[in-house]
Amino acid sequence: MRDAQQFPLIECFDAFGVPDALPQLPLSLTYRGATLEGSALLDTGANVSVLPYSIGVELGAVWEEQTTSVTLAGNLAAVEARGLLVSAQIGNFAPVRLVFAWSSSDDVPFLLGRMNFFLEFDVCFYRSQLMFEVRPKS
Fold first, then answer.
1. What is the 3 state secondary structure string of the chain?
2. Contacts (Cβ under 8 Å, ≥6 apart) of 129
3. What is the pLDDT of residue 128?
4. Residue pair 3/135 in contact by the 8 Å Cβ criterion
5. How far apart are CA 104 and CA 14, in angstroms?
6. Does residue 41 contact residue 23 with C-beta atoms inside 8 Å?
7. Which residues contact 66 (CB under 8 A, 6 or more apart)?
8. CA 62 to CA 58: how far, in whole Å?
9. Are 60 and 31 in contact (CB under 8 A)?
10. Are the C-beta atoms of 98 and 73 separated by less than 8 Å?
11. Each residue of 5-61: pLDDT tens digit?
């Protein structure tokens, strides 16, 4: 992939003790002048990107100010979430605006999903090489 940056898959064990390798993407989020470094799981099956409550608070977001309700699905369906728009810096790419379903709980994963991470970036997974590549949309 041209103009792509490579990242290693993070080797770990799943809940059953089986070895696995996950695409954890390091990124920097900025909201109202506050910046936070983190690592989010790329999830091609997630409809939306999900932000745990404490990360939004660390960025200075105020729950009551976020008026757009977001309905989560699957095992997160019972969690209340609201839309939060932040600036994201990935590698040395230009910053992009990402929208998150900011959850009312910390019992959710920090996810980058189809809306709108995978609309802003193309990703190729190379599981056998324990790496993945990311590049901004063309």
1. CCCCEEEECEEEECCCCCEEEECEEEEEEEECCEEEEEEEEECCCCCECEECHHHHHHCCCCHHHCCCEECCCHHHCCCCEEEEEEEEECCCCCCEEEEEEEECCCCCCCEECCECHHHHEEEEEEHHHCEEEEEECC
2. none
3. 95
4. yes
5. 25
6. yes
7. 82, 83, 84, 102
8. 10
9. yes
10. no
11. 999 999 999 889 999 999 999 999 999 999 999 999 999 999 999 999 999 999 999
- Pairing label, strands 121-126, 111-112: unpaired
Token pair for 135: 């590049």
- Token readout for 60 is 């200075």
Distance CA 130, CA 92 (A): 21
- Residue entry with tokens 């690592």: 39
For 81-138, the pLDDT digits (tens) are 999 999 999 999 999 999 999 999 999 999 999 999 999 999 999 999 999 999 999 8
Contact present, 88 and 39 (Cβ < 8 Å): no
CA torsion through residues 54, 55, 60, 65, sign: negative
